[in-house]
Amino acid sequence: MRRADRLFRIVRTLRGGRLQTAQALAERLEVSVRTIYRDVSDLQASGMPIEGEAGVGYTLRRDLDLPPLMFTRGELTALVLGARLVQAWGGAESMIAAGEALQRIEGVIPVEMRERLDKILMYAPGGFQMRPHLRERLDVLHEACMARRVIAFGYAKEDGERSQRDVWPLALYFWSGVWTLASWCELRRDFRVFRMDRMEELRVLEREFVPKRGQRLEDFLKTVETQRPASANSDCRGAATASVPNRRA
Asked: CA-CA distance, 96 to 83, in Å (whole number)?
């Protein structure tokens, strides 16, 4: 982590209003306690209104902090529910970011609105199904989508048939507890949708891809719109009976 990013995260954590020990900050940021002492000292020297001392803990003076955020009840509910969904079903990095976002929201809203957070009784159970290796795989796939890198993996269909695929990852979709990858398959020369939990030995290749007309995400979505939702793609069977291209893998 760059030092500038670490300093930003220290300030963001201290904005929560709770006293934070150097040890707690060091564990959160995966650095030594001595590094935290040095960073906090530098922040204080730069004019950041951090109060506290070594061995006791630190906090940020709220009267000099940024103005509190204001949300309607509906907006606050949407934000908290969204973060809880990400914590339950998101990738490893997104799960951590969602928790930090909730902490950040709690730290910057007025006291009377914080009480509403505890009254939001909407949850997203089932996250235990997202095992660590699947969360990490989700991060890898998302990065490959954004970087336009070809991925290779073995794939096991519901009937046990296995194949090796090189595909162009276009986007990730979540269907009833299952993440799927929309892609352009080099083997089939067509769009295919694959269940993430059925992928084996996933590798991100050095090859980049540049989708042409008929191979882009917008083309995939147009194809989806023209399909009747009578049955799901065989690669996604069991994920959802949604409008996806009804082509065999």
From this structure: 10
Contact 57, 51 (CB under 8 A): no
Beta-strand relationship, 199-208 and 149-156:
antiparallel
> Is residue 235 within 8 Å of 181, Cβ to Cβ?
no
**Three-class HEC string of 90-133:** CCHHHHHHHHHHHHHHHHHCCHHHHHHHHCCCCCCCCHHHCCHH
Chain center to CA of 234: 27
Instruction: Count CA within 13 A, CB hemisphere, residue 76.
Output: 21
Cβ of 198: how many Cβ atoms within 10 Å? 19
pTM: 0.65
pLDDT tens digit sequence for 25-81: 999 898 999 999 999 999 888 888 888 888 889 988 765 545 555 677 788 889 899
Taking a C-beta distance cutoff of 8 angstroms, is the pair 150, 168 a contact? yes
**Token code pair at residue 14:** 């201290």
Low-confidence stretches of the chain (pLDDT < 50) are 65, 230-246, 248
**Token pair of 87 as six digits:** 């914590």
For CA atoms 143, 79, 179, 246, the dihedral sign is negative
